[in-house]
Structure formats: structure tokens, C-alpha cells
Amino acid sequence: MLSEKILSYHFQLKPSGHLPSGIEWLLPYENKETRRCMTLFYDRYYNDERKRIFILGINPGRFGAGITGIPFTDPIRLESLGIENSFRKLQELSSVFIYDMIKDQGGPKIFYSTYYIASLSPLGFVKDGKNYNYYDERALTEAVRPFIIRNLETQIKFGADLSKVYCLGQGKNYEFLKQLNQEHKWWKEVIPLPHPRWIMQYKLKKKDVYLTMYKDLLNG
């Protein structure tokens, strides 16, 4: 089953490469509560062998996947799925948008039967106690590039729909994924979407416009 592949992969995931000074890995998968919640989530929504269309973010953040282990799913959204948890109920802006979008797509059961959300780097980064992206400094990008490639290829083998991939972020994340895809020829098309955090932070008044944009592009 797809759920077994996803869980086995994440539970065995180890950091690879030497990070630049001052940058640390986010390592949620060693936490028992994270593993318990992930198991409930993936057994519920991925207990089949169907191929999924990938939606790829940047890397896990401290308030979402960096806690729950599930991309763009903070502890509050996790409870909205009926998965009670002991995590501090911190809100991740990106998670709020993603679950509003999922609701627009017919709800979690329908959405996750078609899509698999992940990130270019399956592990996140922290610098000075704050979220840090793999592209925020060149030395970090180069240090984790082999790690990103290897882990994308591993997840693609789970059963990816190779006709297209959606990229969360229209800037550096998109350019990096597009470059990797040109080199490795994984997907036929890379389609950029505005990043949920950017929408929630800078375009909140137009949130409904962006929800419609997502719906149109995902269903296009």
C-alpha cells in the first residue's frame, strides 16, 4: 500500500550532508506522537495503490510539518481531521490556506485521493530559532542538493503521476524544481502556484481570488 511506503520512508529518513554553520535540521520523525499522527493520517488517506499528482512545497516549517510530520498540516488542522494530538495548538498560515483550498476541492478524502503534498527538502531547517529555506543561502542549497534529488526520486517511485507536478512558490522554489526537472526529466510539466504563506501574509484580502486560481489550475 502507498501508506506503508510513505510511512516507512519518513520513519527511516536521516539528514544527509554537512550544513553551513548556524543552521540546524528540523527532525520531527523521531517523535512518537508525530509518528502516531502520521500513521493515522496516511493509513486513512493513502491506503491504496493509486498514483498521485505531486504538489511540492519548499521544506517543512516549525509550526506545520516540522511538528506533525504531515506537509502543510498544523496541529489545529490535524484535529479538524479528527486526529487528536498532544502538540501545542500553533497555527501555520500556509496550513490555513491549504485546508481552505482542500475544502474547495471537495474535502480531504477527495483531495488526498488525487494529490500527494510533499516538499523539495523533506526535512526543514532552522537558523537563529526561525524557519530557514533551502535556497536562503547558496552554501545550504549546494549542501542539500543531492539530498533533495535522492529523496524526490524515492518518493516518485511510490507512484507519482508523471504528467505534471505543481510547485508551491513561483520564485526560487519553482526555478530550482524546474532546473532539477530539466536535468532529471521526472515530470512532463512543472506548474507554479503562488505560495500559501505569501498569499496569507501579503494578499489576504484577495484570498478568495487565489483559492479560485488554485481550483482552476489544479482542475485544468
Automatic annotation (TrEMBL):
Domain of life: Bacteria
Protein name as catalogued: DUF4918 family protein
InterPro entries assigned to the protein according to its UniProt record, in alphabetical order: Phe_SMUG2-like (IPR032579), Uracil-DNA_glycosylase-like (IPR005122), Uracil-DNA_glycosylase-like_sf (IPR036895)
Domain Uracil-DNA glycosylase-like: 45-217
